[in-house]
Amino acid sequence: MTAKIKLNAASGGGSVSLQAPTSTTGNANIELKLPVADASGFLKSDGSGNLSNSLSTSGTDNFTIADGNLVIGTDGHGIDFSASSGSGSSELLDDYEEGQFTPSMVNGVTLHLGNDLLSYVKVGHMVTVTGVIRISSSNGGQEVTINNMPFTSANTPKGSGNGIGSASLYDNDMPSGYTQVICVMNPNSTTLNVIVQRQSSNNSASLIAANNGYVGVSITYRAA
Asked: Could you report the per-residue pLDDT of 119-150, keeping only the tens digit for each?
């Protein structure tokens, strides 16, 4: 004897049925029929009762998305790693973004149109910005400072919100006596400063822009 429960649609011919196994070793069957083609949701119908699914498990509680994206529908949610051991304040990966932006320079410094973009990638709260810009006009020797970084740096205590990165120069000399060049961000800021330092001193100064000089930056910092 086979036990079967079947629900028929009031119109259109669709149905859902649940069939119990014929023996203790048999498998239960669930059948879903849609009367029209439906390309939405996890189960898709071709209109003839044939279904395909876009979300499946491997049998070990893992999901496989055959095609398409995993869409987080509400801001503030993401992938929760709290099942793993750790002592951090959060184990939720809730953001990813990548793109380019045009740096805004301070004190009237301008950039060549062919070298006026920087790239960024944001994973969670960590932001990486890289690229090379070329100075068009130094406006009489002003500093190299960008004041529109894509995300505000974290306002965290005891220096933990500071970001420090590397910088490179071409046709833009450092002042005499300085041997190192880096880029820095202070906490709670969208400003990146390129500074020069002496090898054996605590003295540092802003890098002065040179007409047609190239300045490369690469920094990873924590966003608010």
From this structure: 999 999 999 999 999 999 999 999 999 999 99
Among 23-27, 94-98, 177-181, 190-194, name the one with the lowest average pLDDT. 23-27
Q: 201-220 pLDDT, tens per residue?
A: 778 999 999 999 999 999 99
For 224, the token pair is 């608010």
Residue recorded with tokens 């990966």? 93
Q: Is residue 172 part of a domain?
A: yes
Please answer whether residues 211 and 168 qualify as being in contact, where contact means their C-beta atoms are separated by less than 8 angstroms. Answer: no
- Residue 186 sits in the same domain as residue 128: yes
**137 exposure class (CB count in 10 Å sphere: 0-12, 13-18, 19+):** middle
How far is the first Cα of the chain from the last one, in angstroms, to the nearest whole number? 64
Residue 118 sits in a domain whose CATH number is 2.60.40
Q: What is the pTM of this model?
A: 0.75
What is the Cα–Cα distance from 152 to 160, expressed in whole angstroms?
Answer: 14
The parent domain of residue 57 ranges over 4-62
DSSP 40-106: -SSEEEESSS-EEESEEE-SSS-EEESSS-----STT--EE-TTS---SS--EE--EEEEEEPPPBS
C-alpha 84/C-alpha 96 separation (Å) is 21
- The rounded distance, in Å, linking the Cα atoms of 29 and 159 is 61
Task: List all residues 6 or more positions away from 50 whose beta carbon is below 8 Å from its beta carbon.
Answer: none
